[in-house]
Amino acid sequence: MDYGYGLIGIFILFGIVFVIFTIFFAGLLRPQRPNKTKLENYECGEAPMGGAWIQYNVGFYIYALIFVIFDVEVVFLFPWAVAFKQLGLFALIEMLIFIAILIAGLAYAWKKGALTWES
Amino acid sequence: MAPLANYLVLAAILFALGVWGVLRNRNALIIFMCIELMLNAVNLTFMGFSAYLNDYSGQVFVFLIMAVAAAEVAVGLAIIVSIFRHKENVNVDEINVMKW
Amino acid sequence: MNLLVFYILAILAAGSAIMVVTMKNIFHSALFLVLTFFSVAGIYVLLNAEFLAAVQVLIYVGAITILMIFAIMLTHQLFSRSLRQVNEQVIPASLITFIFFVLSVVALAKTAWPVSGGQLPEDRIFEIGKLLMSEYVIPFEVVSVVLLVALVGAIIIGRREKSGDTK
Q: From CA C124, how far away is CA B26, in angstroms rounded?
């Protein structure tokens, strides 16, 4: 195993232990006098309205969906970019076709109004 | 590296857990998560064989499977959300009509 | 050392997969799914596939699980309470799964898998890119069509409420 990845493992382990340690000892040291105001959900200092477990707008879902599709596209761009220098024109044309097909999808989403916000 | 059989057995465990979840749960969203679990198990076997046979084709396949999984999740969850809007729940044993 | 790391990651992956299946609160299931994906990414690193590990984190953890959590939040009443999530076939389902599991483990452990020695070429991302652009061009282009169809289909299904709520 690479020494480098062992280092990352130690780093992750240290991060986990540090968080647990800090929270545990903070819990031991701090005074505990809960009241109703303290136990409420935090909403930037405003008085909270309703619980935190509410139903969300469908609009968020459409955005997440478009994000997922183009996330995958970008992941496909990466190995292409690394191998591009050796592959030349053919790879460029392939990738242009790939992107053109997905841009058609983006145009469709745009035309359907999936990118405009309506509540 | 650990022996190949270790990776395959771990993949079998994950796959079996996915099958179990699909069969025993009635919430469509959990069934979806279990399908993702099974896809991951298959990816794991692909990766194991790719590393032990010194062939990158396995990794390319994993790559393609991930893309298909993303597409599947996008459409599947849209269907579930749409079903929820009509029926107010997503329990698969109550979704038994093809049209409403 | 390597084996130890593998076992830790394997136990983490399998344990959180069990939690995904058995958790009452569906939101917690989704969070354990993230943990499973992360440990599988760690196993990919052990298999010298850093790029695929990064892609796993990007696509599965960063995109798919986020979409799942969004879908859970859209279907509100399902995650706020602990509902009965199990259907009537729990016992036969568990039995069948167990038999399937035992059989597959026996099959996997008994088979003598061919293993070739030697090392993979070093430049891994480059190799993947080359394969994707030469041998697997057609699947590569088909993926773009699949993504396009998924995008269009999901938008059509997801935005149906706009054309008048037809219940």
A: 42
